[in-house]
Request: fold
Amino acid sequence: MQILAIVWQPNAAWEALSDGAKMDYLKTLDDYINGGRAGGMVVLGWSPIDRTLPKAPKEGFVGVFGVGSAEQVHEFEKMVEAADWYKYFDSTNISVGLEGSTEDQPHKIYARMLGLM
Reply:
C-alpha cells in the first residue's frame, strides 16, 4: 500500500470566507473523497497534529490516505487539486511506500534507504 499524508493549514483565502461558505466548501469535498473511495482509496483518517513535539511541523492538521500504488497517489492528488484544496489550504504532501514493519533488524531498512546496503 502507498500512503499519502497531506499535512495542511488553512490560509488567508480560507480565513476570508464566511462560516457558511466554509461549510459549503467542506461539503463539496465529500464527492471527491467518496469518488476516491470508489476508486479503491482507503481513508485512514484526519487529525490535528500534536504540536507539542519538539520537531512538529508548522502546519496544524493531517489527512492520511492509502492507495494501491504511487500512480494512484498522483491520480488522487489531481482530485485534491481539482477540489480547489490548494486555494484554501497550504499543504505539504508526503507519499510513501512503507517497508520494514516486521524487520527484526530495523537498521537494515535505514541502511538500505541511505544507500549503505
